[in-house]
Design goal:
Blueprint: H1 3-13, H2 27-45, H3 50-53, H4 59-62, H5 64-74, H6 98-115, H7 124-135, H8 141-162, H9 167-176, E1 193-197, H10 204-219, E2 226-231, H11 232-235, H12 240-250, E3 259-264, H13 271-288, E4 291-296, E5 308-310, H14 316-327, H15 333-337, H16 341-346, H17 350-362, H18 370-383, H19 390-406, E6 410-411, H20 421-426, E7 430-433, E8 436-439, H21 442-454, H22 460-463, H23 467-472, H24 474-480, H25 486-496, H26 501-509, H27 527-544, H28 549-552, E9 564-569, E10 572-578, E11 587-589, H29 592-597, E12 603-609, H30 617-636, H31 645-659, E13 667-669, H32 670-677, E14 689-690, E15 699-700, H33 704-713, E16 718-720, H34 745-768, E17 786-793, E18 803-810, E19 818-823, H35 830-841, E20 855-859, H36 867-882
Parallel strand pairs: 1-4, 1-5, 2-3, 3-4, 9-11, 17-19
Antiparallel strand pairs: 6-8, 7-8, 9-10, 10-12, 13-16, 14-15, 17-18, 18-20
Helix pairs in contact: 1-6, 2-6, 8-9, 8-10, 14-17, 17-18, 19-21, 21-24, 25-27, 27-30, 34-36
């Protein structure tokens, strides 16, 4: 790159200087740029190349023709060409020396960017208004598209600078990135919604920017096409449809017209608003034939088939390429082989590949932990400013905590005054736009927010003040798991779990924090201390889970967590729980004999494993034990309530087994059930099961005695089938038939209606009862009251049996749940059903952000022993797995 190219590129990076009135720059604007230039010169004086750079002086900025080019570039209406400038004095240097170009570009663009902050929200409407106000004319469509392109390139450059890349180097790299990463060809297909979901550092925003730049370029060839970029701050301030329409009209396109819409940072919104925005994006794609691409961190959003785009980790070659660009030297395969495992894993994400390269530019070898990479980035940015960092770091921690709590940028008037604001903006860590400050990278916000908690700048009480605030702090708490001590995390989680136990499970199980100071499991404390930490974690969960706790946790007697046995041996910990044995000690040291003999009375649930490297390992241990127990409880079909559809169905299934009667029975006498149990009836209050029937399955009986007693108290002497039974005996030449052949069409419809109505009622009963502490996170439960619409297809007969398509449509508050089963000859249109659900949800303000519109296709599943339980518990297992309170891919099969 020549100096001529460098200066042109420098000005293309700084395209949003704000001139005041007229085609010529104001005196204030002139002074700002000259001051920035002087700062660059002052820094260059210390450079050994100064004698060669000296001919580059302010005469370049004194030429009116150059000012006009700068103004038009600032307004985003011109893509600068270096040949457009009058560089007669500048060329007195050595225009062919690339090293000279790099030095000048680094220093000059860095200095100018301090006094010319560029908005990250560059819209067509803003650009058009500014051009009309300043130059007194309406910009052309080509000029507006140039402005969008320059704004996108600048946002990429800012992100690279925030990742530790020098400003000049970042502007060059921003142009080279398309060579390194790209999205699938169908990412911007008309009429589609795609969600680019990936963790922090995966480069999803940059990938979206590159896709946006391609769309802008294509729109230049299509005069009727509109391209729109929106970020989370824009979405939070108004209707998606209105904002897209305004920008399309500004480009001369009135919807419906070909539309490409990029929405960046869905995860920066509250979950409710994020899910509503995703639904609106789907509607925009469906109604306007728009191509919509959204970026987000992994969220428990309900994705439609083919909607999510996976961002694969970098290959070794890609990691080397990006790290080499940041290190400004070539790295080899054998260099990566020597990196610690934690660094190699982290560097598979583009951000950490760049951070690793930036580290290697200043050090001979990589660090041991990812935390050092982030600390080096921050210290390097602050060191460039000179002076002491303490007050600057404290201000950044306040900004991080406020922006996390508010879930967005913070007005400067709401932050402590600092005389270093310009310098902090110059560091590249933050940006100030329209009087509001925010971090350029989410990773930096999370790091400083975690530090704010650790250093007491924000109290733990403020972080856990409500479920809503705790949700906004989730990612920062995950960052804290990588840098805080076990004791600190133990105290924080003990308070947080009482506010929202469902969210704590998500924090603990959503993956290891990307920022971590440790790479190996910590040395375990001695046995008693290790057991105490696990039991205290279990006790905190017990207090927050209500009646569910006694069903899924080791308790003895009910309501009290059992004593725990522990043996810490190096990095291996063994935990077991004491049952049915009084003990004055809550924590008991196990001996090696217990390990050799395996679990035996009085010990139960013995587990031996190496704790994770997280300081939250006692909580992870306790949570996984509870999660696994809850999963097994759902898979067993055990009734979680003493009455209601699940209890009725369980009692019916057990009665059929005890009496060994026909599954087509409609009524069974209660006395017959008691007679079949005989003397065992008096012992059913204990944890017993009835085993040995031909199916080989065991049915839980513990609830049966109070269930039968309750029927007696109500004067009921019989148990009835909980759903319509068969009403026809099929004729078959082969002597065999399918189960659905035993039902007339109407009886099959009635059975389907009854089974799904029972499953729906049971789900609501569970979410409002035993699962109430987790109910806020259960997707289906948040929709109630609902209408379940089921479309039943009979099939062709034989093994081509009946199938169904169903979905949930929200009803007005105060309504009763309903199930409607319609017979159809072909599958309904899924887009129509989804639109119906979204339209109904729009009438319910309480459903803002709740996922709606999910359509399910299924083989008709209303047969078997306990179909209501199986359907209901599968729904619960799916919803609980999304928040890490059930194992993933849990299959409830009670046949």
């Amino acid at each position: 790159m020549t100096v001529v190219e460098a200066i042109g590129l420098a000005f293309s990076v700084v395209q949003a200087i704000s001139p005041i009135g007229g085609a010529s720059p104001s005196e204030e604007t002139r002074k700002r740029i000259v001051a920035a230039y002087d700062l660059a010169v002052e820094r260059l004086r210390a450079n050994t190349e100064w004698d060669r750079i000296k001919p580059v002086d302010e005469s370049f900025l004194a030429r009116e023709s150059n000012w006009q080019l700068i103004i038009e570039s600032a307004l985003g209406i011109r893509t600068l060409n270096p040949e457009d400038f009058d560089l007669s004095r500048f060329d007195a240097g050595d225009p062919d020396d690339p090293a000279l170009a790099r030095v000048f570009l680094d220093e000059f663009s860095h200095a100018v960017s301090r006094d010319a902050p560029i908005s990250t929200l560059v819209t067509v409407k803003q650009t058009a208004a500014t051009v009309e106000r300043t130059l007194g004319r309406v910009p052309t469509r080509r000029e507006l598209l140039d402005g969008l392109m320059l704004g996108s390139r600048h946002r990429v450059t800012r992100r690279l600078i925030a990742a530790g890349i020098s400003p000049g180097h970042a502007s060059v790299l921003a142009l080279e990135l398309p060579v390194h990463r790209s999205l699938p060809d169908d990412a911007l297909a008309p009429g589609s919604t795609k969600v680019l979901a990936a963790p922090v550092g995966a480069g999803k925003s940059v990938l979206a920017e590159l896709a946006f730049q391609e769309a802008v370029h294509a729109a230049g060839e299509e005069p009727a096409e509109a391209v729109v970029w929106l970020d989370s701050r824009t979405i939070a301030n108004g209707s998606l449809f209105d904002q897209v329409g305004e920008q399309a009209i500004a480009l001369g396109c009135r919807p419906p017209c070909p539309l490409t819409v990029i929405i960046d940072g869905l995860d920066e919104l509250d979950f409710d608003l994020a899910t509503r925005t995703l639904d609106d994006a789907r509607a925009l794609a469906a109604t306007q034939n728009a191509a919509v691409l959204l970026t987000t961190r992994p969220l428990p959003l309900e994705m439609l088939p083919g909607e999510q785009i996976q961002v694969p980790p970098l290959s070794k070659a890609e990691t080397l390429s990006l790290a080499s660009l940041a290190a400004d030297r070539d790295l080899r395969d054998w260099d990566v082989a020597k990196w610690p495992a934690s660094i190699r894993e982290a560097a598979s994400l583009p951000l950490f590949a760049l951070l690793t390269g930036a580290w290697l530019k200043a050090h001979p070898s990589v660090p041991a932990t990812t935390s050092e990479l982030v600390e080096h980035l921050i210290s390097g940015a602050l060191n460039r400013l000179g002076g002491k960092h303490d007050e600057r770091e404290r201000w950044l921690m306040v900004l991080a905590s406020e922006s996390t709590t508010r879930s967005g940028p913070v007005a400067l008037r709401d932050l402590p005054h600092t005389g270093d604001l310009d310098q902090l903006a110059e560091s590249g860590l933050i940006q100030v736009v329209a009087g509001q400050a925010e971090f350029v990278l989410a990773l930096l916000r999370e790091w400083f927010a975690a530090q704010a908690v650790l250093k007491g700048i924000v109290t733990v009480g403020a972080v856990v003040s409500s479920p809503e605030v705790l949700t906004r702090w989730k990612e920062s708490l995950r960052a804290l798991l990588g840098i805080a001590s076990t004791d600190f995390i133990h105290g924080l989680l003990a308070r947080a779990v009482g506010v929202d136990p469902g969210l704590i499970g998500d924090i603990l199980e959503s993956g290891a924090p990307r920022i971590a100071r440790v790479t190996e499991p910590p040395g375990l404390p001695e046995s008693i201390r290790a057991g105490t930490l696990v039991r205290e974690s279990m006790m905190a969960f017990h207090q927050s889970l209500g009646t569910l706790a006694d069903r899924v946790m080791p308790v003895d007697p009910p309501g009290e967590v059992s004593p725990v046995g522990a043996l810490a041996d190096g990095q291996i910990l063994t935990i077991a729980w004491l049952r049915h044995t009084p003990s004055s000690q809550p924590v008991i040291a196990l001996d090696r004999q217990d390990l050799r003999d395996g679990p035996r009375v009085p010990w139960t649930q013995m587990v031996t494993a190496a704790p994770s490297s997280s300081p939250a390992w006692p909580w992870v241990w306790a949570h996984e034990a509870i999660r696994d127990s809850l999963t097994e409880l759902l898979k067993s079909g055990y009734p979680l309530a003493q009455d209601g559809p699940i209890a009725d169905e369980a009692a019916w299934a057990i009665a059929l087994k005890l009496l060994r009667t026909s599954p087509f029975e409609k009524v069974i006498k209660v006395d017959d059930v008691r007679g079949a149990l005989g003397d065992l009836y008096q012992d059913l209050a204990d944890d017993c099961h009835f085993v040995g029937f031909p199916t080989g399955l065991k049915e839980p009986l513990r609830f049966l005695r109070p269930y039968l007693d309750q029927l007696g108290e109500q004067g009921i002497d019989e148990i009835r089938a909980p759903w319509p039974q068969s009403d026809v005996w099929p004729s078959s030449q082969s002597g065999s038939a399918w189960v659905w052949d035993f039902f007339t069409t109407e009886q099959l419809r009635l059975r389907t209606e009854a089974v799904y109505a029972g499953a729906l009622a049971a789900y609501e009963q569970m979410s409002r009862g035993v699962l109430a502490p987790l109910a806020h996170h259960l997707d289906r439960g948040r929709l109630f009251p609902v209408s379940l619409r089921f479309f039943l297809e009979l099939g062709e007969g034989g093994w081509h049996g009946p199938t169904g398509t169903w979905h949930l449509v929200p009803l007005p508050l105060g309504s009763e749940n309903q199930v409607i089963v319609d017979l159809v000859e072909e599958k309904p249109d899924w887009k129509t059903l989804s639109a119906e659900a979204r339209s109904a949800a729009a009438e319910r303000p309480d459903l803002s952000g709740v996922p709606v519109g999910t359509i399910t296709g299924t083989v008709l599943d209303v047969f078997g022993k306990r179909p209501m339980t199986e359907i209901c518990y599968q729904w619960l297992a799916d919803d609980l797995a999304r928040i890490h309170w059930a194992k993933e891919h849990t299959r409830v099969d009670l046949q």
